[in-house]
Amino acid sequence: MSAEPSAAIDRVLHGAVDPHGHPFPSPFPRRIDILEAAEHYAEAGFRAFVAKSHHHSTAPDVALLKRHGLDDTGVDVVAAIVLNNHVGGLNPHAVNLCLAMGGRVVWFPTISAPNHIEHARTTGLKFPKTSIPLLEDEPIDIWASEGTLKDEVHDILRMIADADAVLASGHMPAPWIIAVFQAAVDAGVRRMVLSHPNFVIEATPEEAVKMADLGAVVEHSLCMYDEESSFHNWAIDTLVDWVRWVGPERSSLGSDLGQAGNPFPADSFRKICTRLLESGLSEREVRLLVADNPGRLLGLDG
Asked: What is the rounded distance in angstroms from the CA atom of residue 92 to the CA atom of residue 90?
């Protein structure tokens, strides 16, 4: 890489935010823990990242590490919860605890979403295996009856709105996500994100645009565009097309990395952002994807 592209990437990533990281602890094998991840991001010039676990709230992990030097890294570590079976599914009590302990992101079901379970069963879904034995996932349904969301969904959305936290789509089918996002807007939720629309969710560009029109940021996972990642699925042109369809002002990038054997998150950011610049996106557009939009989503600038 020549000096000029390297300088451009340094400018783009200065103060960047990773809204989708997967550090240890987790039943899935991880390459770095939360503190190591914060140090890694700090060295790369990032200002924040979200610590996500598919199995538990990371709020207690982050709270503990804050007593042992986490804040000294200078990186804002954002805690989160994912509403899979392991926290009781659509469990308002678990959401309440996470938010009360400082968590700022609530994902709806990922590995417990019915379409994720079906993909894993029938398509050989690229996904890590747990290093410890766990009960088999059961699909979590958000519907009380046709067209009517469960009361717990509305309770959780009100909690997210009251905390001015982030509602994340999880891996549910696109029509389910649209219904939840519509209910979230009615509940007063101001921050929403659609994760990797073309992975498991299988949203069309039109569906993704509809979610963006509701106020969601459309987030793409770098691990799916990095050939060194076990989750590599698509060439960079696919990512460019998605960004152009939805618009860079309504899109973001998250590493979705931290797994054992996969690239370090910041390394993947440098690689993929370089390719985006080479593909014709401007520095300003790429900076929207990696700094401005995720920072705004997480409320880092107040």
From this structure: 6
